[in-house]
Structure formats: C-alpha cells, structure tokens
C-alpha cells in the first residue's frame, strides 16, 4: 500500500471524495505539518499552529496510481487560492500535497506543472514532505457519512 496526504480545504469533503475512489483502502482526516504537539480542532482553527486540515490516503497501486489520485485531487480544489477553499478561510484550509516517499516528488511536480497550464494565476498548493500528521477527533472521521447534509465545498456529484 502507498500513502499520500492531501489538503484541500475542509477535510470532511476530501475524505468522502477519496473514500469513493477505486483503489483507496483507507482515509483518515487530521492535521498535517504543523508546529504544536497533539493539536485539537479548536487550536488548529483559532491559533497559529501551522497545521493544514488534511486527509491521509492509503491506496493500492495495483488499482490506482498517484497520477490518478492527483488528477482527481485537482478537480476538487482551486489551487490558485491561498488559505481558503469555498467558504472556509484561514491557513488551515490551504491546499497541500504532503508526500511520504521521496520517489513521489517527480510525479507530483509533473502533475502540478500540468495543472498550472489550466490557470492564469500561479498555483499556490504547497508540495512538502510530510513532517507530522495528527489524527483529528473521532467526530470528524467520516463526518459526511454520519451527517449527509453537512457542509462541504466540494460539489456532491463529484463523490460518485
């Protein structure tokens, strides 16, 4: 199994979206690449912790590829917006691709360059090595499955 962490605004929709994809075996929402220990949702939203709301994704490379996951990722974000997606505004809602394996950098960079061709404004999605990831509180896990009418900036028709 391969792993990647993707930040694309509120993590509820990102998780639901990738849960519906072929080859994805596990998703967990949490906080990526921040500077405090054991952050809480309240801290991430209200203080300068440096964390991004993100989704840890484990996938079977025999069923889907990193390229396919990234192509899907670009469909649910506006990568030219800094620190926001949809109605969510703040540094924790930035877009980011956090890799665990150095071997993925080339593929990620190519995907980002290909995506840039679609935009006049520069893509601000950060690409960084995953330094840390803290699982979010249980009530955030599979939130949209538990709360089908919950808020999400991603159009629901993309979940199918």
UniProtKB/TrEMBL annotation:
Its EC number is 1.8.4.11. The active site is at residue 10. It is an enzyme of class 1 (oxidoreductase). Residues 3-153 form the Peptide methionine sulphoxide reductase MsrA domain. GO terms for cellular component: cytoplasm. It catalyses: L-methionyl-[protein] + [thioredoxin]-disulfide + H2O = L-methionyl-(S)-S-oxide-[protein] + [thioredoxin]-dithiol; [thioredoxin]-disulfide + L-methionine + H2O = L-methionine (S)-S-oxide + [thioredoxin]-dithiol. InterPro entries: Met_Sox_Rdtase_MsrA_dom, Met_Sox_Rdtase_MsrA_sf, MsrA_MetSO_reductase. Pfam families: PMSR (PF01625). The keyword Oxidoreductase applies. Keywords: Oxidoreductase. The keyword Transferase does not apply. GO terms for biological process: cellular response to oxidative stress. GO terms for molecular function: L-methionine:thioredoxin-disulfide S-oxidoreductase activity; peptide-methionine (S)-S-oxide reductase activity. Belongs to the MsrA Met sulfoxide reductase family. Has an important function as a repair enzyme for proteins that have been inactivated by oxidation. Catalyzes the reversible oxidation-reduction of methionine sulfoxide in proteins to methionine. This is Peptide methionine sulfoxide reductase MsrA. It comes from Clostridium tyrobutyricum DIVETGP. The lineage of its organism: Bacteria, Bacillati, Bacillota, Clostridia, Eubacteriales. The gene is msrA.
